[in-house]
Amino acid sequence: MAPVIRVENVVKEFRKTRRQEGAFGGVRTLFTRQYDTVLAVDGVSFGIEPGELVGYIGPNGAGKSTTIKMMTGILVPTSGTVEVAGVVPWRDRERNAMQIGVVFGQRTQLWWDLPLIESFKLIGKLYRVPQPTYERNLERFVEILDMAEFLDRPVRQLSLGQRMRGDLAASMLYEPRILYLDEPTIGLDVVAKESMRTFIEEMNRDSGTTIVLTTHDLADVERLCSRIILIDHGHVLYDGSVEPLKAKYAPHRVLVVKLAADDTGRVPVIDPSHVRGAEIAEQENGVARIRFVASETPVHDLIAAVNARYPVADLSIVEPDLEGVVRQIYGERVPVG
Fold this sequence. Notes:
Layout: E1 5-17, H1 25-31, E2 35-48, E3 53-57, H2 64-72, E4 79-84, H3 93-98, E5 100-104, H4 116-126, H5 131-144, H6 160-172, E6 178-182, H7 190-207, E7 210-214, H8 218-224, E8 227-232, E9 235-240, H9 242-249, E10 252-259, E11 278-284, E12 287-293, H10 299-309, E13 312-318, H11 322-332
Parallel strand pairs: 3-7, 3-8, 5-6, 6-7
Antiparallel strand pairs: 1-2, 1-4, 8-9, 10-12, 10-13, 11-12
């Protein structure tokens, strides 16, 4: 299957005016221009298949937003190729706009002084959405995103969470093939984040929408994305699924064991020699945290060893989180093989 988004050896340079030093530096800068070249994206390549949900992540200044702006047609690359569903975005902006949806966390596509429902109607007209399709999608989105109570409220009176839900619905009303989400959950509370995540999941699963998600909230990525692309200083450091990253950079798991009292009424202490292939990281007040490498010590063997010798009240396994993994990768600043 051919990629629906193709990015090949893309470079984007920006020229920045160099300010002259000295008492009359401002005047000299005005009449004698010198420039510094800033390389925002440096040879980025990837392909995204139809229906994929990809997390495109990196620190501030890594080149994420610049790449997204080239894929949406806002920016033209200095060199390289970008194709989105067979269209070069900046050459055929209207055709490209009809097949993509975009949500920027800090900007809105809604009309500020109009009721939310009027913004939806205008977007339906702009994108020539057939009335039955518009009504079907609107009804579905209002239900999923719980927007009924504020549909008739002017956008300027909406909370951030309400406005973001409105933006997300607006971006999908005309059923675009591709959806770009730039920090869609920034600043939202837990309830609003969950509503947004559920909507994104459903659009990807039920409608087959290809979604590119940029975010600093790695909980979004772990919950939603089957694949991640890590970028830093304009270079791709990693492109693949989350699990291999965890296996390489965070191979350890923690088995948390809560012990019950034995026949004498005492809460026992686990002997390290009884958990071979693992180490007891912490043991206090009847709770032991046992650290192990899952690829070397099967968890069921470890649980069986503890159960055979000790009265167990409860067990749980703590998985490594993506945030710690990504922090380690950016600390090393090397491509991940």
